[in-house]
Amino acid sequence: MPPAAKRSIGQVLPLLKNEFPDISISKIRFLESEGLVSPERAPSGYRRYADADIERLRYILRMQRDLYLPLKVIRQNLEMMDRGIEPPSADAPNGSAATPAAVDPILPDPIAASRPKPERSMKLTRRELLQVSGLSEATLIELERQQMVVPRRGSIYYGREALTVCVVARRLQEFGMDSRHMRAIKQAAEREAGLIEQAVRPYLTTSPKPAKTLHDVSQLVVHAHAAMIYTLLEG
Question: How far, in Å, CA of 184 to CA of 114, rounded?
Answer without folding.
Answer: 27
